[in-house]
Design goal:
The chain has 484 residues and is an alpha/beta fold. The chain contains 19 helices and ten strands. It folds into six domains: 116 residues, Cobalt-precorrin-4 Transmethylase, domain 1 (3-Layer(aba) Sandwich), CATH 3.40.1010; 106 residues, Tetrapyrrole methylase, C-terminal domain (Methyltransferase, Cobalt-precorrin-4 Transmethylase, Domain 2), CATH 3.30.950; 90 residues, Helix Hairpins, CATH 1.10.287.1080; 33 residues, no CATH class; 76 residues, Orthogonal Bundle (Helix Hairpins), CATH 1.10.287; 46 residues. Helices cover 52% and strands 10% of the residues.
Length: 484
Amino acid sequence: MSRSGITILGLGPGDPALLTRQAWDVLTKASEIHLRTRMHPTIAGFPAQLKVYSFDYLYEEGANFEEVYEDIVSTVLTLGQREAGVVYGVPGHPFVAEATTPEITRRAKIEGVPVSLIEGLSFVDSVFGLLEVDPFPHLALVDALELAGDYHPQFPPSAPVIIAQIHSPAVASNVKLTLMGAYPDDHPVQLVHNAGSANANVESIKLYEMDRSTNIGLLTALYVPPLDSRSSFEGFQDVVAHLRAPEGCPWDREQTHRSLRPFLLEETYEVLSALDEEDQDALSEELGDLLLQIILHAQIASEYGAFNMVDVLKGIQDKLIRRHPHVFGDLDVDDKDKVLENWEKLKSAERNEIDKKANGVLEGVSASLPALVQAETYQERVNRVGFDWPNVHGVFEKIEEEILEVKRAESQEEKEDEIGDLLFAVVNLARWMNIDAESALRSANTRFRKRFEELEKGVQRQGRDVSALTMEELDALWNAVKKK
């Protein structure tokens, strides 16, 4: 071939017999070809006269894949501007799991370098054939190196997925750990080796075993069958939208943000109750009930064009990333107190951005919070700007002072004010001791209920009634229950 420009040629999945006629025609007429890598079986079937160059040396010299791909792209663009142009060969199809091709075509357009695309059979087509699966309607295609760097799979587990480039046990191990965030350890998976070549084979194993396979190599992919159709967040949204649809449930269709308010509060407390009881089964169920309320509110908002779940998810993720520059940015923060201090500065800046006038430290604390939680939140906020006791002794002295003021109070209004001040001071003591006041009181309530129920049972076993007992008898029984 003797014309300027770049010819990007797909080498197919591995068997030379699977080269397209168009690709073979280019190879027989070309004097040379530059390959992203020689590590591909198709090369063994190249025409004898073809001089083969590769960029494999860059993989040994480069610090990371991004650097290697940048060097390849730049070199191919330079070669493409020669009078003879360049034929650049990549495994499979040029636009399937191939990072260099999109960047070459993008920059070639900017630089005015003509590009010809010679398509090839992708490894994915051969994988479908080996597995005997149809990718429609929901199959996900994922890059192993991207997935290995994630902390949770970024695709719904209700859809099947093919994960490409499981090229080493180390990559397989990292992919496995990420997948275990959504799939059972013993979920059946299939490793597909050398798809599209004469020695292709499929290895059926359990998820936890995948990195132990001795067959993993450069041409290994992973197929993960789907979980139940009801296992994805998107599927849950569809169920809720169906409930709200004209053919859905009459009760659900009638709900509004306001009518759902008591259910949101109730489900929140049900979650807290499950946490207090340390009942993991109940917690799983109650979190689902709470999530239903959240999705219902988002669905109602979407029907009125106010916002949708995408807005909710993007908004909270943007906020988390923005408020954690020590995790997602360059800020160096080495302890919890500095994290909280920086968090408050960021929130203050956000409030000022929304409302240009200076907002107070306590701005944005919800008036509907439970009183103990609200008190603790106020105290945490002012602590971050230095309004706090120098040590816990001041808190104890404040509690003693408030107890005396309760004793001295005469009117009902004074008593109520002083009791409130005393409770506020006790919440402050809990905060100083790193104790959540709301949880501590809920635990105390639970202990009291259990002890009093035990006391009642003891009295009933004696054939007596609690209300008939003297205070001295009740006190003795109560101490016995506590001791027990």
